[in-house]
Automatic annotation (TrEMBL):
GO terms for cellular component: cytoplasm. Its EC number is 2.1.1.77. This is Protein-L-isoaspartate O-methyltransferase. The gene is pcm. It comes from Bradyrhizobium icense. PROSITE patterns: PCMT (PS01279). Keywords: Cytoplasm, Methyltransferase, S-adenosyl-L-methionine, Transferase.
Length: 233
């Protein structure tokens, strides 16, 4: 972590500029595709959180030119961080408020969790690949994200001890929303997840829990995510 911090310091002003440019790209992209968010695009609050989150410190190369292009980035083990616009879109759709407790399934690099940490009171995030969980834990700890807890495991079952949740963000694709996640969502809460086959594109879906046993669901955009895998136990 010390070496990373030193490397990062040397390129910091350039990285800051590239990150600010990425935020502008997200803004422009949202305007050109107004159908997706239907409104003015991501809120200033979400854009500010993205502007404060150092994406280059979450990717293996630590390269700003790679980190701040509006593209997905590989994080090893066949996994990727989504394109920044999709990260912004999912964060916006989750409607996270400062007093919220949020669950993320699919920690990956920890980047999305870090953005959520700027917006919520507490973030709990689950990752199924041990080395990704370990690296994300170290990265988040190194950057002093104290309101994020990372757990190794299959996120299908959620994390009841950490909830109930005001918002849930799932960053891997599955044919249906895991029922335990709906159970752990508060009434009035939202779950955002790519629903569909892992090997084609999926519908980015927003599920709202309107009563203890009632949800409404809407498909927002066509997206392409890595598969949601299940542990064998
Ligand atoms: N949100 C991440 C990127 C997610 S890529 C980031 O910001 O970097 C999707 C992640 O979901 C991968 O790391 C993958 O290992 C993880 N994943 C897939 N199935 C899972 C499951 N059942 N439980 C927890 N994590 C899972």
């Amino acid at each position: 972590m010390v070496v990373v911090a030193r490397e990062a310091t040397a390129q910091e002003p350039q990285c800051d500029r590239e990150r600010a440019a990425m935020v502008e790209t997200i803004r422009t992209y949202a305007r050109s595709d107004a159908s997706v968010l239907g409104r003015q695009g991501p809120s200033e609050r979400v854009l500010e959180a993205i502007g404060r989150t150092k994406r280059h410190l979450f990717i293996p190369e630590r390269s700003c030119s790679i980190a701040y292009a509006n593209k997905p980035v590989s994080i090893g083990h066949g996994q990727t961080i989504s394109q920044p616009f999709i990260v912004a879109l999912m964060t916006e759709l989750a409607e996270v408020a400062p007093d919220h407790v949020v669950l993320e399934v699919g920690t990956g690099s920890g980047y999305q969790a870090a953005i959520l940490a700027h917006l919520a009171r507490k973030v709990c995030t689950i990752e199924i690949i041990p080395s990704l969980a370990e690296t994300a834990t170290k990265t988040l700890r190194g950057l002093a994200y104290e309101n994020v807890s990372v757990r190794l495991g299959d996120g299908y079952a959620g994390w009841p001890e950490c909830g109930p949740f005001d918002a849930i963000v799932v960053t891997a694709a599955l044919g249906q929303v895991p029922p335990p996640l709906i159970e752990q969502l508060k009434v009035g809460g939202r779950l955002v997840m790519p629903v569909g086959s892992a090997y084609t594109s999926q519908q980015l879906t927003v599920v709202e829990k309107t009563a203890p046993d009632k949800t409404t669901s809407r498909a927002v955009a066509l997206v392409r995510f890595v598969p949601f895998t299940r542990s064998k136990e």
